Every structure is written in structure tokens, then in C-alpha cells.
């Protein structure tokens, strides 16, 4: 490929939130139309197995997550989109990389320590091997750029280390990936605690908007959103709740925060919440409608996943054959 590869693996952990859509997905939608990049998006279902899953629920959740990303506008004609478990080269390259990974560096991973404390009854080898599988995900596609958050920087570093270690031992084979720092999207905060980021894991159901929420649920959650004691509509560190609502309104409408403040001036807080709720309903309605169509057509979703798997496998197979030859395995 002549284009730079951007790779992102997403665990099917639940519902895509309004914060995910505005903060990350909106940037990905722009990337897919950029001729400089080829984006590869994987549903990282193998990674999710480090935590015990209910098989039927997990299967349905993974397929739903795939449908949500499609409904948000990620186009399988422009991106390679597939399930990690459908491309067996991920697991095979992991074994090769395991053989050049030191136990000390794997056990020092922050996420391994945190998850071991969180799930003390299930400290499995997958938890320790997680960053090696992640490295295989990235290196299989000669990825140039990887979008990473703060919690994943350490994992990208081990991917870079393993790529360099293999290249030094066997001759240049892997592209050493760099972090991709995208244009910072708006940070959407919790509706119940505007000092905390909106999160799908929030135990307070009124704190988070899902892209699949009904119109009634969206309006109800905004009516209950935390504001402050006065009735002034402005942006400020001393007004986190109102700032969050104005930001959401601006992003939903596709206007600047300054223009949003002008449009909302003079409204009571109740009217402000209603206006923001309506703007979000208008933004998410076509996504929800598209999702409802997609999720009813399981065969159609699997056909899209199959096409993505074939594209991904074509690239991964070439990389793995090169790796097998380098390490001295007999090939047919």
C-alpha cells in the first residue's frame, strides 16, 4: 500500500456513547476521506477474553458493536473493518513475538497490574500476554500510525520495542509504528458529574448518553443534567455543567462554542436543557435508525465482516509468511 496505515483495535465493551462519537469517531470519519491514509478498524474480540464472558451475550455484544460503528458512518468501502478473531494470523504472530518478549517487560505493564488487582480470581496468561497480542495486531499490517490514549501508550512502546528487536535480529521486517495524535475532539463530560468524562461504565444511567438511546431517554437525561445555582449561560471553569451542555449543543449543531452561547442566551436552564436535548436527538436519530436496520440483518453484517476479513487476511498473510521465512520455519 502507498498510503500510511492507521490501525485501531476496539474492544466490544458495550455501547458507543455521545462522548465517544464526538471525541473520537467524528475524527475517524474525517480520516476515512483523507487520501493519505488507509484506516484499519478491528473489533478486538480476542483481547476481551482476558475477562470471563457469557458466550451468547459476548457474541451479541460484539456484533452490536460492529453495527454501531457502521451506523456512525465508518464506511467498509473506505476502511478495512473486521473481527480480530477472523484473522488467524493475529494469534500466530503473537506466538513468534512471545518468543522475543521478556517476562520482566510483560509483567511490568501497568494494565496487567491493574487488571490483576481488579480480577484477583482470574489472573491468567492472557492478561500478561495482552500487549504482545496488541503488538501483533499492529505489526501485521505494517502500521505507521496508531491512535492511542494515555492508558495505551505503554503498550505501543512494547510494540515498537518488539518491532525493532525483530528487525535487528532478522533484518528489517516490521514498520516501527508511531503514535497518532489526532486533532483533539471536544471532551464531553458526565451529565451528572461534569468534572468527570462521560463513560459507558458509569453506574449512574443518567450520566451517559448512548447513541442507541431513545428520544424519550435522551430528553429525560438532559432534563436531569447537573447545572449550577444561577441562571447565566456562559463558558467558564466555575460553570462545568453549563459549559458541558453548551459544548454538546455546539458539537451537535456543528457550530462554534461562541455561536452556541449566542443562540442559547436568554434561555432558562430548563429551556437550555431542552434545546441541548433536541440537538442531540437530531444528531443521533439517523444513527439510531441506521443501527436498527443493520442489526436486523445479521447476514448483511457478517457479509461486511467477511469482506473485511478477506482484505485484512490478504495483508496479514504476506507479513506472516515473511516472518516465518525470517525465523527459519519450513514453508510449503
Looking at the structure, the CATH topology of the largest domain is Rossmann fold
Tally of individual domains? 2
User: Into which percentage range does the β-strand content fall?
Assistant: 5-15%
**Element string (H = helix, E = strand):** EHEHHEHHHHEHEHHHHH
Structural class: mainly alpha
Low-confidence stretches: none
Distance between the termini: 26 Å
Number of strands: 5
Q: Summarize the amount of helix as a percent range.
A: 40-55%
Report the C-alpha radius of gyration, rounded: 22 Å
Largest sheet: 3 strands, parallel
Per CATH, the superfamily of the largest domain is: HUPs
CATH architecture of the largest domain: 3-Layer(aba) Sandwich
**CATH class descriptor name of the largest domain:** Alpha Beta
- Quick one: overall form? elongated
Q: What count of helical segments does DSSP give?
A: 13
In the sheet with the most strands, the strands line up as 1-2-3
Q: Report the average pLDDT across residues.
A: 92
